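Recall the central idea of this unit: under ordinary conditions, the amino acid sequence of a chain determines the structure it adopts. In this exercise we apply that idea directly, starting from the sequence alone.
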Amino acid sequence: MKFKDMQYLRPDFDDIISRGRELVKSVAKAESFKKSLDSYMLLDTLEKDVATAVTLCHIRTSIDTNDEFYKAEMDYLNEQIPRVQEISNLIAHAVVEGDYKEDYKNKFGQYFIDKHEVSLSTFAPEIIEDLVEENKLSTEYGNLMASAKIEFEGETHNLSGMEPFMQSTDREMRKKANFAMWGWIAAKQVELDEIYDKLVKVRHNMARKLGFENFIPLAYARMGRTDWNAEDAKIYREQIANSVVPFAQKLYLEQAQRLGVDDMKNYDYNLEFLSGNPKPLGDEKYLVDKALNMYSELSSETKEFFEMMVNRELMDLSTKPGKRGGGFCTTISNYGVPFIFSNFNGTSGDVDVLTHEAGHAFNGYMQRDVSPEALSDYTMEVAEIHSMSMEFFTHPWMEGFFGEDSEKYYYAHVSSAIKFLPYGASIDEFQEWVYTNPEATPKERRNKYREIEKKYLPHLDYDGMEYLENGGRWQKQSHVYSMPFYYLDYTISQICAFQYFVWDMKEHGAAWENYMHCVKRAGFVPFKELIKECGLKSPFEEGCIDSVLPGLEKFIASLDKNKIV
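Accordingly, the structure predicted from this sequence is:
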């Protein structure tokens, strides 16, 4: 079935919750483990029905935020979803505290039990109204950012549509585009402050109701983290500050020398090369055709996967008015397929979508038959390994996308991934401060972010733009609003992906085999155990980052400098 033919059905939440409560009793106290398991699988089916409806609605309202039907349905679902979370919590209680805990452990493994145990701490009926409010506020933020209509160069653009101008070889154009885009966001500062202030307070209140000191441990539990905590994150961020920041500063200096700009401003860093950033050779159809060829040659599994994505029209890629910004990959549970959403804008990011988001989708496709879904439910730092590593495994095919710009793409891809690590750490450290200080004012939050930003990104000069100089940059980062504490996961996964990259250059067969193991085993064991199984070093281990950087430095040095100008 093609995506357009997939039917959205509003769930009957009253019926689902009524049936769910009865089935939960059976999971805990059935006369046999077989009957308990049968009830558990029926509950899994109910949850998949709800997830399918929510996902279809989310995708369609993201494609067109002005669609009144799906907009209204999303509002309705945001109010109802927390009620289903109560059932999920009851399921966890039934597994962990019922008669058959050891049987579930023997059948599905210890991590299956651990995931249910950590979820117990994330919910109580008293927070249902808070969850509804949180969902509404998150949606409000997304709709606000999607509403951007920026008049520039005689046309109207959304935020994604401004990116090509931000990468112009004309410095004045970059500056104008920078001030136009950030100017629009700055004009929404009061609204953005209000939304975030409400989010912080509702999340803090939920945490207190659940017995936590603040939102941080609740956020970690909601992320399903069972084998690392905020202390691990702090130690890891310090590795980035001590090892990656100096390396990144060298890369920024080289960039300034390439551009011939002595007084680099924030808008200059969007341009890597004076001859222009690497650009794809064609439009959406061209890029998808090249991706189809790439995945056909990479492996039999990726060939089958991407042919399915194309034939069933499971991608919506080009930017258009009213479309939500950014990109994501999700799974439509009852159809057993992934879906890729993006905003192509003529930059190298378009190709990254076909590798990064396709990496997510490939993992989902490879695990489409795993049941129950909780068995393959993995944390985000695991999920991003699949996507970021795929970006590097597909390097040999980049000439088909970029032609003569391939060498520039290789350089920009690796260097930008390195430069990203300090920014990712800054977002995480900022959020940690925010939720440790939930009563801080919007101004105090911005001041703190600017302080943290100077620690990780000391090169930034905002050319007198008050909004950015005063610490407003984080408000463009949707994760801060909608997925708190997710962002560090990208950096952790990036370190793992770097290891696969260096390994792949030396021994492709072994590296790919281990990557496939990572894809198939995701969710069956926790992060640190999975990394060990795959022959990688944990980013939390002291010295891990320092062991990765030399291989990246060697790769960058190996590129043809005559083509990187």
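The two ends are 47 Å apart (CA to CA).
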